[in-house]
Design goal:
The complex is a heterodimer of chains A (about 350) and B (about 475). Chain A is elongated. Among the domains of chain A are: about 40 residues, no CATH class; about 160 residues, 3-Layer(aba) Sandwich (Rossmann fold). With about 350 residues, chain A is an alpha/beta fold. Chain B has 21 helices and 8 strands. Chain B folds into 3 domains: about 80 residues, Four Helix Bundle (Hemerythrin (Met), subunit A) (Up-down Bundle); about 200 residues, Rossmann fold (3-Layer(aba) Sandwich); about 120 residues, Signal recognition particle, SRP54 subunit, M-domain (434 Repressor (Amino-terminal Domain), Orthogonal Bundle), CATH 1.10.260.30. Classes of the chains: A alpha/beta (about 350), B alpha/beta (about 475). Chains A and B meet through helix 6, helix 7, helix 10 and helix 13 of A and helix 2, helix 6, helix 9 and helix 16 of B.
């Protein structure tokens, strides 16, 4: 599951380690539990699988698409205009985006007119397939669970740098706390760089998360140039031989040119120190975000090479459909989903689970 | 902020203008476009539906009145309906003589409650002469209470501190007592961000409400919210009873359709909008102005008000006189640049001006950044002049110009260009003041020619290209 892994012998990767396992760890790895956890979609007995947790979280969205559709159809087997309208509302209502929604509905409408589609079940399948296709296409761009340029990343790159970006209030700091915990629990030395030197008490908030996940935090006083904090952190991470450095950044609206330039500078500073850094740039998107999310993604990708999305606050009623529009236009894969306030509430994104939860 | 929506509506209605007479089919076509534009602006699906139906009905049933062209009438109908939807009239916060008046801030996580609490406290203290005490009852999010303390410090207001107490209700009780004992007349409570489906926390909000009987319960909403805005606003309204709305992050490029949705489902007025990260970046919400902006009429009124509050009136009048007498020196020019800076970023200023003012030209943020950079250079050049030079640019000979270029880190060409632009600008301003437009824009006048400079430079570039071919 560890996407930041470089090419290693398979056995190391399966244990989520950067080094050969010790005898003790090997023994643990042999236990059935550890083996099972490796399987994404298998559900370990007596313990909730992440697929389930994901579904539960999304199911909190009280009226699902299919309930809505069911209520219009009300026993009708034939598909008429009102069904399509309702479907359009459901798609737009999930923030999937007007353009994408209208395209999908138009496709369905054509098939209905040509009498190729007359069954509600078929209609639902068509829509699911369309959505799945969009999400899987991004997965094909970047093989799931890997880095795009994995083959090129030399083995001795340390630290592996993860830059976390997004507009204000989407949950960057919280996500970093959860992410640090995740990566550390896979057996990596993780460090956090507090480069949000602007917002009041950002450092304090991050410090609490760092403590929870037991990860060292590199910080300086508020108002420092974030690039300087980053530079120092890279030095510190090198000195301590850390595997992964997670970099928090201040929330910024994508329309503020100077702040986007600041982000570019951070990229340059990281890249000058370590070739290919930042190796991952995760853009955090709040599930309640509407069409502006697409604009955010466009601007951020212009400033820094965004390699993945994290969809946060999916435990509310918002469905975060804007990520589908982003995936469609920019081909950025969705990496993680935030489903709560606890340290374990960050799960890997599964297109299947996401689409199924929209419908079931 | 609503540019894209107004662009679309303008385009549609321009198509309508092309028609000699307005038929039902024309209205249908326009409404289809308006519908898509509103949906893309994140206005809720149901809200769009009822809005479009209302406008259609009114537009169809109307008789064509005297001087108005039928197309203009549709614009007016759309505009009126939008103003009505956004709230009709502007509303201020209500206060009584009781001590303290409690204002509760509620909303989803990340909507900007804590920052807005600070901004509101500053606004109330400075322009309404209130004595606010700030209280954070967010005992859940790490460092939430520190965040409010730091903000309060920055704006020179006090927070109620009781780090040992972790019970929101007890915090409220003690803070109210503190207000009564020490004479703070307003208590601003920053509550924990929560999902509207989190019943436990909703109960907590209800308890706080019972405990403090607030005058105002303000729902803080992110202007970038999508379709879900309706659901969260409705839930908060049903559970705790919202009395007003503050929209945050309005300085971005969001089309802000959430404003219309939230207003429609709660029926409560939008009282303020947050327009930046500085603690004074909060403004009253004027539905008519925003609706004008949506329709591309610009927000000249807001701008003028801002100019008036920031620019020293006497100075502005003095300037006007100087302009009229053609004594606008480089020193005055620099004053103007500085005053403009105090107004905030160019982006924001441009937002408030009607798009027609610059011949429908729209500037991207890159362009405004370029201009801002240029203004900075201009200021540096003027700074490098002697007072005598600033008073009379005619004495600037070659050696003086060389010295100024060295002093300001620019080239002689840049100095020449700046001086040329300044003389050009003086001529333009003379024309403006005699024309009357200058009077309208008052102190802002100094900034406008800066844009002219930018455009002129582009024009020469184009000419150069042509020569090459």
């Amino acid at each position: 599951m560890a996407f930041w892994k470089r090419k290693k012998e398979d056995a190391y990767i399966s244990l989520g380690l950067n080094r050969p396992p010790t005898a003790e760890e090997e023994a643990i790895a042999q236990q059935p539990d550890a083996q099972q956890e490796r399987n994404l979609y298998a559900e370990p007995e007596g313990q909730e699988g992440f697929f389930d947790r994901f579904k539960q979280a999304v199911a909190a969205t009280r009226e699902s698409l299919s309930e809505k559709i069911e209520s219009v159809v009300g026993g009708k087997r034939r598909i008429d205009a009102s069904v399509l309208d309702q479907l359009e509302e459901a798609l737009i209502g999930a923030d999937i985006g007007v353009q994408t929604s209208l395209e999908i509905i138009e496709k369905a409408r054509q098939q209905v007119n040509r009498n190729q589609l007359d069954d509600l079940y078929e209609l639902k399948r068509l829509i699911k397939d369309e959505l799945r296709e969009i999400l899987l296409a991004t997965g094909r761009n970047r093989r799931q669970g890997t880095v795009a340029s994995e083959a090129e990343v030399p083995l001795d790159i340390k630290p592996y740098i993860l830059l976390i970006v997004g507009v204000n209030g989407v949950g960057k700091t919280t996500t970093i706390g959860k992410l640090a915990h995740r990566i550390k629990s896979e057996g990596n030395e993780v460090m956090i760089c507090a480069a949000d030197t602007f917002r009041a008490a950002a450092n304090d908030q991050l410090a609490i998360w760092a403590e929870r996940s037991g990860v060292p935090l590199i910080q300086q006083k508020p108002g420092t140039d974030p690039s300087a904090v980053l530079y120092d952190s890279i030095g510190a991470a090198r000195a301590r031989n850390a595997d992964v450095l997670i970099v928090d950044t201040a929330g910024r609206l994508h329309t503020k040119t100077n702040l986007m330039q600041e982000l570019e500078k951070m990229r340059r500073v990281a890249g000058r120190d370590i070739e290919g850094a930042p190796h991952e740039v995760l853009l955090i998107i709040d599930a309640v975000t509407g069409q502006n999310g697409l604009e955010q993604a466009r601007h951020f990708t212009r400033a820094v090479p965004v390699t993945g999305l994290v969809l946060t606050k999916l435990d509310g009623t918002a469905k975060g459909g804007i990520v589908i529009a982003i995936a469609k236009e920019l081909g950025i894969p969705i990496r993680y989903v935030g489903i709560g306030e606890k340290i374990n509430d960050l799960v890997e994104f599964s297109p299947e689970a996401y689409i199924e939860s929209l419908f079931d | 902020m609503f540019e894209a929506l107004s662009d679309k509506l303008r385009k549609v209605l321009k198509d309508l203008r092309g028609q000699g007479r307005l038929t039902e089919a024309h209205i249908e076509a326009a409404m289809r476009e308006i519908r898509i534009a509103l949906l893309e602006a994140d206005v809720n699906y149901q809200v769009v539906k009822s809005f479009v139906d209302r406008v259609k009905e009114k537009a169809l049933g109307q008789e064509v009145i005297g001087t108005l062209a039928p197309a203009q009438q549709v614009v007016k109908t759309v505009y009126d309906e939008m103003v009505e939807m956004l709230g009709g009239t502007s509303t201020q916060l209500l206060f009584t003589r009781r001590t303290p008046n409690v204002v509760m801030m509620v909303g989803l996580q990340g909507s900007g409650k804590t920052t807005t609490t600070g901004k509101l406290a500053k606004l109330l203290a400075e322009s309404q002469h209130r004595r606010p005490l700030l209280l954070s009852v967010d005992v859940y999010r790490p460092a939430a209470r520190q965040q409010l303390s730091i903000i309060a410090n920055a704006i020179g207001q006090r927070t109620f501190e009781a780090p040992d107490i972790n019970d929101p209700l007890e915090l409220c009780r003690q803070a109210v007592r503190e207000c009564q004992l020490t004479g703070y007349d307003t208590l601003l409570i920053d509550t924990a961000g929560r999902l509207h489906i989190d019943q436990e926390l909703m109960d907590e909000l209800q308890q706080i409400k019972r405990e403090t009987s607030p005058m105002e319960i303000l729902f803080i909403a992110d202007a970038m919210t999508g379709q879900d805005a309706v659901r969260s606003a409705q839930q908060f309204h049903e559970q705790v009873g919202v009395t007003g709305i503050i929209l945050t992050k309005m300085e971005g490029d969001t089309r802000g359709g959430a404003a219309l949705s939230i207003k429609e489902v709660t029926g409560q007025p939008i009282k303020f909008i947050g327009v930046g990260e500085r603690y004074d970046a909060i403004e009253a919400f004027y539905p008519d102005r925003i609706a004008q902006r949506i329709l591309g009429m610009g927000d000249v009124l807001s701008l003028i008000e801002k100019v008036q509050s920031e620019v020293d009136e006497d100075k502005a009048r003095e300037l006007q006189e100087k302009l009229a007498r053609d004594k606008f020196s480089l020193e005055d020019f620099r004053d103007q640049l500085r005053q403009m800076k105090r107004l905030g970023s160019l982006d924001k200023l441009m937002d408030m001006l009607p798009s027609g003012l610059f011949g429908g030209m729209k500037m991207t943020s890159e362009q405004t950044a370029e201009i801002e950079q240029k203004l900075k250079l201009t200021e540096a050049i003027i700074d490098s002049m002697t007072p005598a030079e600033r008073r009379d640019h005619e004495i600037l000979n070659a050696s003086r110009r060389k010295r100024i270029a060295r002093g300001s880190g620019t080239s002689v060409q840049e100095v020449n260009q700046m001086v040329n632009e300044y003389t050009e600008m003086r001529r333009m301003m003379r024309m403006m003041t005699s024309g009357g437009l200058g009077g309208m824009l008052g102190g802002l006048g100094g900034g406008l020619p800066g844009f002219g400079g930018g455009r002129r430079r582009k024009a020469t570039k184009r000419r150069k290209k042509k020569k090459k071919h």
